[in-house]
Amino acid sequence: MALSGDSSMNCDVLVLGSGAAGLTAAVVSAHHGLKVVVAEKSSWFGGTSAISGGWLWIPRNPLAVNAGIKEDIEDPLTYLRSEIGNGAGDARIDSFLANGPRMVSFLANHAEMEWIDGNRIPDFHDTPGSSIGGRSVSAAPFDGRSLGSLIERLRPPLREATIWGMAVQGGAEMSHFFNASRSLTSSLIVARRLARFAWHRLRYGRDMHLVNGNALVARLLRSALDKGVTLLAEAPATRLIQEHGRVAGAVLHVKGTSFAIRAARGVVLATGGFPHDPARLAALVPHAGPQGLDHHSAAPRTNTGEGLRMAEAVGARLRDDLASATAMAPVSLAPRSDGEVTNFPHLVDRAKPGFIAVTPDGRRYVNEADSYYDFISALLRATPTKAAPYCWLIADDRARRRWGIGAVKPFPFPLRPSQRSGYVLSARSLAELAALCGINPTALAATVHEFNEAARRGEDPLFGRGSSPYNRVQGDAHNRPNASLGPLERAPFHAVRIVPGSLGTFAGLKTDALARVLDGEDKPIPGLFAVGNDMSSVMNGRYPSGGITLGPGMTFGFVVGRHLAGLPVTSIEET
């Protein structure tokens, strides 16, 4: 492994960016005998993948098949047709569906990857072709000590989503933490987990039990090391090298000097899209405002669109006609003690009993348990023209103590610091809370009264919350009669302001089924490939299920790796 080098280097494959998609391309290429270099702009490896939930949407994956969940390829294709319309005719969809299961098998058999299934995770929407499970996989927990000194370069989880730096595995483990005060079994599991974390902090200075996206990236990094991939950190690319009509490498900026890497087979762009590129956001995201500053992405702030700009400089075309340019998600602006503000994504709390979301007029506008993408889509529709889109997530004290709210963790973690900073507004009555938030008090009182009356019966006449499989999984399985509904009754009441944000971007470079970057005439630019969020979304800018970024991203990393190694790719006829 090398973290720096001389003034030049030659390789077969140069990957720009170190998220899961780029690392997959690197691992597959190296496995088939190619010399691979991964260059990362940041001091951390892992990109957005490392702070994600780590789930991949891979229909017909081998874990589901082994569990007896067998689908014809037409089943997920039917779902995609109902979700993304004509976008399902994109040749990349066929490539994704055919090669996704093969990618999962390859990494399990030829890399340091152990998968866990998501056989009980449903698709977001109950539309034709949807499934109640069997289309999701994630990386199993990983011992960070296996990375050796490279563990210091692994991007840590989002601080606000951890307990003193300890990440909690989504699903069963998170459920045990929520139920630790209600179940002896859960309390024992949590006690053991905390004890192990305490030992790791004392012995190693950090948690070595890696989960979620951290585990996914760590396993790929370990695989890359094992296969001889050269890893360069703090090595941002400044331009692509083009020779004789093909992309032949890139110029990096390393320790204050230019550093040329020539790649005989190709350059793979995996730089994470443009979630923090104000100019691109201003052009493509209406609510981002004329300066592009009113969109608050939870992706790393180093993802500023260099990959797209470098590709455009050699003739690439950006696809900007998608349903949404970003993977929209609700975000709250959580201040830290050092003055920094974190864009905290609300992926868990909204669907729990005892929560509602209202606009400043005091009315609900959405099924709060629907997907993060749908939550913000509805907010943008509900916001008057030229008004700033935002809403308030409101919980009573019973819900806040049980589930936390936003970046504030459940009891016994303290609420006072977040109240002092103004992140959480609290009041003894709904009328007082409305005054603090600038919400119409009369409408809020009526909204909560009507919601509570129906919630006690397990009903939501306005939006049907809790009626879909996805809603129920997101709620509390122990809550009756509806997993997602509970009245707001116990004072004090709490509110957090939510604004439009994202988990990353969808608009990206136009590519073909081999992830080759296309020019203005839809012809491949020789030697240039794009995966992850540098590639335009194969979902046509929509969000049909969790994992539709990592799933296609890693699948096309696999496709690129095989293609660069001169191997055939399933379902692809090369031209």
Describe the structure.
The chain is of the alpha+beta class and 575 residues long. It has helices spanning 20-31, 62-66, 74-84, 91-110, 172-178, 184-204, 212-226, 278-284, 306-313, 372-382, 397-403, 416-421, 430-437, 441-455, 469-474, 550-564, and strands spanning 8-16, 36-39, 55-57, 115-117, 136-139, 142-143, 209-210, 230-232, 237-243, 246-254, 257-269, 296-297, 318-319, 326-335, 341-345, 355-358, 391-396, 425-427, 493-505, 508-509, 516-518, 524-530. The strands form five sheets. Strands 1, 2, 8, 9, 10, 11, 21 and 22 form an eight-stranded mixed beta sheet that branches. Strands 12, 14, 15, 16, 17, 18 and 19 form a seven-stranded mixed beta sheet that branches. It has a three-stranded antiparallel beta sheet with strand order 3-5-4. The longest helix has 21 residues, at 184-204. The protein is globular and about 70 Å long.
